[in-house]
Design goal:
The structure is a homodimer.
Chain A (H helix, E strand, L loop, with lengths): L6 H24 L6 H8 L3 H7 L3 H10 L2 H11 L6 H14 L3 H11 L2 H9 L5 H12 L4 H27 L19 H9 L3 H9 L4
Helix pairs in contact in A: 1-2, 1-4, 4-7, 4-8, 5-6, 5-9, 6-11, 9-10, 10-11
Chain A binds a DNA duplex through helix 1 and helix 3.
DNA sequence: ACGTAAACTTGCGTGTACGCATTTTTCCTG
DNA sequence: CAGGAAAAATGCGTACACGCAAGTTTACGT
């Protein structure tokens, strides 16, 4: 199915990885605001023009060092679940798993991201990337008649994940708001990231169940 | 509740409207690619710097001439439905209504938008704008305990609308694909805009019903 | 009515985004 | 193993995005 990637593709990925690496390292070293595209390009050994062939903005390179190939991993995690589990659970578990199994280095980068609005926005934008692969795996479970449904559900998941991350970033950003109110805690979860993700996914469960039911009566 | 808007606010809206108008007119006159921000600003009687205080990109001004205050109209249309109807139906009807009740001028602008990828993207991006007002009206119907659910549902609606518009734009863009296949029509609706919107909203109905049910047993 | 604070506009400077044309590298086929 | 096609990198030029520091207008309290 997949021919071993040629030198062309490997070099491309190497360049992308070098840009990621350079962007994150420089951002950590001197602070996110003291890094220009020109610096990143130079550190990665390419021209600034080439940088923009890989990343559309300065922030994307930094953020992509954290997100890497999260989309593919989420899709793989969904298909890895046994066929018996509810689709809703499979997707939720896969999302939680891939957003929390984070390494040392990624944790540090996340902390950096929370400090700048532009970086937070770029990070939140990456949630949209999970939509295409999710659409594919959901469509596979729903059969060909549910293609449109799969697209809508995948997009809804991406939206739910974004909302969860927003809430989590907000809580992480200003930790003083945690004690601001007294008993309003019922409204907003504001808990850990896995909790936020599960809470955001929950409202979509009935839609998943209905879609799954309509294919296997 | 609302104090009559002062001179300040009225002038602001006038400037915004002038920029919209100028952007659309110039785009129609000379073609979308032959219009620079400087031209739009000049035609509207402001500096280019001021233009960017209102619109973040060149395309936004053109697109906003079509979308205007669609977000507010959709939210109002939802609350205008009698309290008896299902929330899902209220939202769907409101969305369909506001995206199809289009005037002469807007129709022409839409045609223009379909001709350029950058404009189509900017147009699709505007679907995200309906999310905050939709969140508010849905939250009102669900009560205070469903705040998070309201956010997820509103975001899902925005995503569904975006998918519907993508499908419609694709169909409108290359009309030759309509006869490309024979009986594959079961998979992709590819019909009129109202049909696309209703089809995209349908998978979310169970989620809306469940949310509504959990508040009024 | 006046003065002050807040909001808006503007000019300027820097950094980024991207189209186009050219050069370099990789790939494939005879 | 050539040699040409395809893809990528690069240089260059232009236009856009935006922070900052004025200057200008509106709003509001005394």
């Amino acid at each position: 199915m997949t021919t071993p990637p040629g030198l062309r593709e490997r070099k491309k990925q190497a360049t992308r990885e070098a840009l990621r690496e350079a962007a994150l390292r420089l951002a950590v070293e001197r602070g996110p605001d003291q890094v220009r595209v020109e610096d990143i390009a130079e550190a990665a050994g390419v021209s600034p023009r080439t940088y923009n062939n890989y990343f559309a903005s300065r922030e994307q390179a930094i953020v992509s060092a954290v997100t890497a190939d999260r989309e593919a991993r989420i899709a793989a995690a969904v298909t890895a679940r046994p066929a018996g589990v509810r689709l809703t659970d499979a997707v939720t578990q896969a999302v939680v798993e891939q957003y929390t199994n984070t390494g040392e280095r990624e944790q540090q980068a996340l902390l950096l991201i929370t400090t700048r609005t532009a970086l937070r926005d770029a990070f939140l934008d990456t949630t949209a990337d999970i939509e295409p692969p999710l659409t594919a795996v959901i469509a596979e479970r729903l059969g060909d008649t549910g293609a449109q449904t799969a697209r809508v559900l995948a997009a809804s998941v991406a939206a739910a994940v974004r909302i969860a991350l927003e809430g989590w970033l907000r809580a992480a950003g200003n930790a003083e708001a945690a004690e601001g109110f007294g008993a309003g805690g019922l409204v907003v979860p504001s808990g850990s990231l896995p909790d936020q993700l599960r809470a955001a996914m929950a409202p979509l469960a009935p839609a998943f169940d209905a879609a799954e039911r309509s294919t296997q009566p």
